[in-house]
Design goal:
388 residues; alpha+beta; 4-stranded antiparallel beta sheet; 11 helices; 50% helix; globular; binds flavin-adenine dinucleotide
Length: 388
């Protein structure tokens, strides 16, 4: 049953935490070994009404803001499931935002209701092998034909494409050379992931094995006009609407991984006795962990600040970028320190911190790298010349 959660922050954290307690360390460790998608967790989140937390009430969602979504995702990530848990549901929160803002009422009903109920899964295909961070250089083409478009091209790193029924796809409808601005001429679709026309090839990767990432080959895929979001040529601008929320959420998720790792490290440090005293009595062990706490706390509040700005309709570009940067750094440092605190056991899978360290690296790379964030801040906050 989809019961929309209510808008109380402590209540959200408590309810999500209760739900996550049903999925313990062994559950996540097992999926990290088998690579199977966390179906039971996903189902439980859908049944609890959480997959629609940011979606319109007219489609069965709860229409809450980034702030509430960030609290929810922080709680999920620090539950022990890390990015295996967070990435399994992350796409539902702001991935469909272009549909919410620019989709027709008919599209919203057709697409969002099954997503919120957990009956359909989707994936987000923007990155291309030959374009990298320069999204305007994508070459996946959508050519106009009667009734729709024919699409050919390649995407990479498309998360959950192995299990998705739908694909949010950014294409070029006008070649870059014919556009007044590089960001013109791109069109966004929400299409059926037709496996006769789309080959999805798994990428073996460093961590988060339970949530797949893929190379995607699109060969002569027909997409009806009814599956285009908004106007032709405006796709890039539509995507921009979801970028800041996505950065804030990734930042908060990384903080959650770091908080979980820190909790595990502190607990181990109080119990492990070497040279006749707990290792946590040594300042060499205490101080780095205390520093991790300080940085995680700062990153948490930066994420909340950015979320508050976004939810109140204010400009939050710099804060959202800073939130993602700080969250990823603080989360990564805490996971790294946790492994070191546990000594040899930090390297053992049964203590879980090595899994968190492998997973938290994602936040430093995706959806945007640290270099690009720093360039954004240099340009937009320090008035320095654009560097790329
Ligand atoms: C686990 C995972 C999941 C992902 N999921 C998705 C997904 O679902 N959908 C999707 O579309 N994408 C996804 N991505 C892709 C991700 O967003 C990209 O990997 C990321 O944006 C970086 O792009 P790139 O890998 O092409 O790096 P590149 O663009 O090749 O950059 C390589 C390095 O060069 C640096 N660099 C490049 N240009 C400059 C410059 N001008 N100045 C300074 N430094 C520069 C970058 O910062 C980076 O460090 C995922 C990636 C990972 C690892």
């Amino acid at each position: 049953m989809n019961t929309p959660p209510d808008n109380d922050h402590t209540g959200i954290a408590d309810a999500v935490s209760r739900l996550c307690r049903g999925f313990g360390d062994d559950y996540w460790l097992n999926l990290d070994t088998t690579g199977e998608f966390p179906r039971e967790f996903y189902r439980a989140m859908a049944d609890g009404g959480w997959l629609g937390i940011t979606m319109p009430e007219s489609c069965g969602g709860s229409a809450m803001g980034v702030t509430e979504a960030a609290i929810m995702m922080n709680t999920v990530a620090k539950s022990g499931g890390g990015f295996s848990a967070a990435s399994a549901i992350h796409i539902n929160l702001f991935g469909p935002h272009p549909i919410v803002v620019f989709g027709t009422e008919e599209q919203q009903q057709r697409w969002l209701i099954p997503l919120i109920k957990g009956e359909q899964q989707t994936c987000f295909a923007v990155t291309e092998p030959d374009a990298g961070l320069n999204t305007t250089a994508i070459t996946t083409r959508a050519d106009k034909v009667e009734g729709g478009y024919r699409v050919n091209g390649r995407k990479i790193w498309t998360t959950t494409a192995q299990v998705a029924h739908k694909i949010m796809l950014l294409t070029r409808t006008t070649p870059l050379a014919d556009c007044a601005k590089p960001s013109d001429g791109m069109t966004l679709f929400y299409a059926d992931l037709d496996r006769d026309k789309i080959e999805v090839r798994l990428i073996e990767k460093m961590g988060r094995k339970a949530v797949d990432s893929n190379a995607v080959f699109i060969d002569d895929l027909f997409i009806p006009e009814a599956d285009r979001i908004g106007e032709e040529g405006e796709g890039f601008r539509y995507l921009l609407h979801s970028l800041n929320p996505e950065r804030i959420l990734i930042g908060m998720e990384a903080v959650g991984l770091g908080q979980d790792a820190l909790r595990r490290a502190a607990s181990y440090a109080s119990e492990r006795v070497v040279f006749d005293r707990p290792i946590g009595q040594n300042q060499g062990i205490q101080h780095p962990l205390a520093e991790n706490w300080i940085y995680l706390e700062s990153a948490y509040h930066m994420c909340m600040k950015a979320a508050e700005l976004y939810d109140s309709g204010q400009d939050c570009g710099a804060q959202a970028n800073a939130a993602k940067f700080l969250g990823a750094r603080a989360g990564h440092d805490a996971c790294n320190q946790a492994v070191l605190t546990l000594g040899g056991m930090g390297y053992a899978k049964e203590f879980h911190v090595e899994r968190l360290l492998r997973e938290v690296m994602i936040a430093r790379i995706a959806p945007v790298t640290e270099q690009l964030i720093l360039s954004y801040i240099a340009e937009n906050k320090l008035g320095l010349p654009k560097s790329y």
